[in-house]
Amino acid sequence: MSSKLDRLIASYNSVECEFNVDKSIEVCKEILKINPNLIEFQENLACDYYENKEYEKSIELFNKCMENGGVSDSGFLMIALTYIKMNEIAKALEILKETKNKERYLLNHLIVYRELEEYENAIEYGNKVLDLNPENTLALFHMSEIYDEIDDSERSMFYYNELANVVPSMKSAVLIRLYSLGKYDELIESFEEQKQKGIFERDLESADFNFVIGMSYYELNKPYDSLKYLINSDRIYPTVDKKTAIAKNYIEILRFDLAHRYLREALEIDEMDKTTLFLITETSYYLGYYYTAIEYANKLLSNYQYDKAFHVLGAIYFDLGDNQNAFESLKVGTHVMLENWDYNKGPYSEYIMEIAKKLSKAGYAER
């Protein structure tokens, strides 16, 4: 019997149960059939019911645990959160008084008030926790999230950085957070400084981390630096987004041949990706593959409304001496301007053909 119980406990602690709440509930029930007195698993089952949104079952089990004197301080938090889901706020706040450890008592209040979106109270308790223990990782995390929720990105990042100082393995997560906030300068400055100390060696084996660094360099108009990390990311795990990002960098440095290569690879993954179809239309034109560009443009425009593609088509047709198709393509592409055309400027047909001439004669940067 004990060997079966051991196997079930091992199964409960497995990855399968960690990411499958139904499986976790099933195994937990089997454990409690063998030994109903395992209060730890009564509490675990109650938490699983909470995750599964079976709140009444969760409360029922937590009450049994309390009768047996077996609820942990973190368990009292889960009871409070369950009562909140049942819209019994007074009971939620009352049960927190049962928390025995002072630091956990303050932390539980921080988390509950955040759940209630009573941010002023949450911050007050968060400050108290951190006064008591400045390295409380849960408090630092929730304080960062609270300030993010109230759109105070500076304070949010402060607590996120503090968290990373306590848990060095989270330093890469700080950069990812900066990326989500669009703080590319700060991200790259931090990355380059810490990279010299060897901090991100393991992270640079990750496709996602390389992508974040590469895209940050791209946003800062540093295509050569961007390419280094984006190509590495694509090597580890190729996707359409990575290949189009690489292509954009190559376009910036006028290497249309290399951009074209990566765009062809992107279409092998998703032949109807809108961004890829436009970029390969554009690069085909710059490389002088006019009829290939027309083919890609037609494929794009048969599935999507994309004004810029009409502009490229207009320039292509003008280069080919087909003024009628050049005119028609540009007319569609500039329809927004033409809706309110001021005829004092002259016929818009002349204006459109002037666009065609400029597109045709201009270099890449001018276009």
Features of the shown structure:
367 residues
Fold and architecture overview:
- The chain is mainly α and 367 residues long.
- It has helices spanning 2-12, 15-18, 21-34, 39-51, 55-67, 73-85, 89-95, 102-115, 119-132, 137-149, 153-166, 171-180, 184-195, 207-219, 223-236, 240-252, 256-269, 274-286, 290-301, 307-319, 323-333, 335-339, 348-361.
- The longest helix is centred in the N-terminal third of the chain and has 14 residues, at 21-34.
- The model has no long low-confidence stretch (mean pLDDT 85).
User: Helical amount among residues, as a percent range?
Assistant: over 70%
Number of helices: 23
What's the end-to-end separation, in Å? 77 Å
Spatial shape: elongated
Total strand count, please? 0
Strand content: under 5%
H-E order:
HHHHHHHHHHHHHHHHHHHHHHH
Radius of gyration (Å): 30 Å
Mean pLDDT: 85
Major β-sheet profile: none
Overall structural class, as computed from helix and strand content, comes to: mainly alpha
Short précis:
About 75% of the residues lie in helices and about 0% in strands. With about 375 residues, it is mainly α.
Helix and strand topology:
Elements: H1 2-12, H2 15-18, H3 21-34, H4 39-51, H5 55-67, H6 73-85, H7 89-95, H8 102-115, H9 119-132, H10 137-149, H11 153-166, H12 171-180, H13 184-195, H14 207-219, H15 223-236, H16 240-252, H17 256-269, H18 274-286, H19 290-301, H20 307-319, H21 323-333, H22 335-339, H23 348-361
Helix pairs in contact: 1-3, 3-4, 4-5, 5-6, 6-7, 6-8, 8-9, 8-10, 9-10, 10-11, 11-12, 12-13, 12-14, 13-14, 14-15, 15-16, 16-17, 16-18, 17-18, 18-19, 18-20, 19-20, 20-21, 20-23, 21-23
